TrEMBL record:
<dbReference type="InterPro" id="IPR003439">
    <property type="entry name" value="ABC_transporter-like_ATP-bd"/>
</dbReference>
<keyword id="KW-0547">Nucleotide-binding</keyword>
<keyword id="KW-1003">Cell membrane</keyword>
<feature type="domain" description="CBS">
    <location>
        <begin position="314"/>
        <end position="371"/>
    </location>
</feature>
<dbReference type="GO" id="GO:0015418">
    <property type="term" value="F:ABC-type quaternary ammonium compound transporting activity"/>
</dbReference>
<keyword id="KW-0813">Transport</keyword>
<keyword id="KW-0997">Cell inner membrane</keyword>
<comment type="similarity">
    <text>Belongs to the ABC transporter superfamily.</text>
</comment>
<dbReference type="InterPro" id="IPR000644">
    <property type="entry name" value="CBS_dom"/>
</dbReference>
<dbReference type="GO" id="GO:0016887">
    <property type="term" value="F:ATP hydrolysis activity"/>
</dbReference>
<dbReference type="InterPro" id="IPR003593">
    <property type="entry name" value="AAA+_ATPase"/>
</dbReference>
<keyword id="KW-0472">Membrane</keyword>
<comment type="subunit">
    <text>The complex is probably composed of two ATP-binding proteins, two transmembrane proteins and a solute-binding protein.</text>
</comment>
<dbReference type="GO" id="GO:0031460">
    <property type="term" value="P:glycine betaine transport"/>
</dbReference>
<keyword id="KW-0067">ATP-binding</keyword>
<dbReference type="GO" id="GO:0006865">
    <property type="term" value="P:amino acid transport"/>
</dbReference>
<keyword id="KW-0129">CBS domain</keyword>
Amino acid sequence: MIEFKHVSKVFHGQTIIDDISFVIEDGEFVVLLGESGCGKTTTLKMINKLIEPSSGTVEINGRDISGTDPIALRRRMGYVIQQIGLFPHMTVRENIEIIAKMNNRDKGRLEQNARRLMEMVNLDPDQFLDAYPSEMSGGQQQRAGVVRAFMTEPEIILMDEPFSALDPITRTQIQNALIDMQTALKRTIVFVTHDMDEAIRLADRICIMDKGKIVQFDTPENILKYPANEFVRNFIGPKRIWTSPEYIRTRDIMISDPVCCHPKLPAFKCIELMGRKRVDTLMVTDQYKRIYGVLFAESLIGIQDLKKPAEELMERQFTSVPPDSSIVDLLTLFDEKHLSTLPVVDSQGIIEGLITRSTLVNTLSRQFIQEKKGA
């Protein structure tokens, strides 16, 4: 665990970091995000003591690192920067094993780790382990740099805009490889970028900084949906949520008070209720909102026995979705099953809301309304 407690940094009378406090949990991927000069790289470098705080404390696993030998501290951490830093006179194997050898790691284990990690970043170990950096592309060299950071099996890996110089395709490929590595190895990663899309793609949580202060520290989903202030709102942009539709949840767009009726409600009362509420569908539920079926207006057309209860007219087999499903899931269901309505039901069978085709159309149209307003 990494913890900053009221940390500030002053350079030549100018406050670069202004009384920041936060905690990064073990195995968490946190992205420090902000404009140039906001203090994100300074914050990163205080974790491995490349920069010392002017006040406050930085703790790792509950211990203040101010008295820790910086060389010993750095050997326990992985570090990846934009300038890859592979030694040109060494092979890839020698480059990625150099710190691990300083830490007296077993030779057999080094070989095993090297091959496994190379495969995880899509570098053929038979082809590249004994190659020199000059024989590799920039993207391949950066992959080797990522492998080197993981080779010592560190608890913490620091990454300072490592992919910013790469072309978009290579960048996406290495991001995917990093996601796979983190899923498998669960290191604590602190990653600096100024790219919001990269942050959303990689992070468990994002720390947005401005002028040395933390303005919001939250999950990508919450930052996209609930920006803390105008700075964050402008930084992420009004349409950013539409580039990550998986964060638009059913609960965000559903009709939260669908029209319901009791299973024993007679047909003529159901017709009256539909007319009064101007709906063509009723959710058939008990007094605890537990859903039993869906009653469509079509089932009431031409009915002879107007006293027949809703439970005898409703559809007992119906498709539903949980509240945390994404808009992508909804679109797929509506398309594949040709639905007109979709009850939102929790794990206990309680109805929480309703999605209709109109709901989806209205939601999807917002991105174009926002685009027009921003024009």
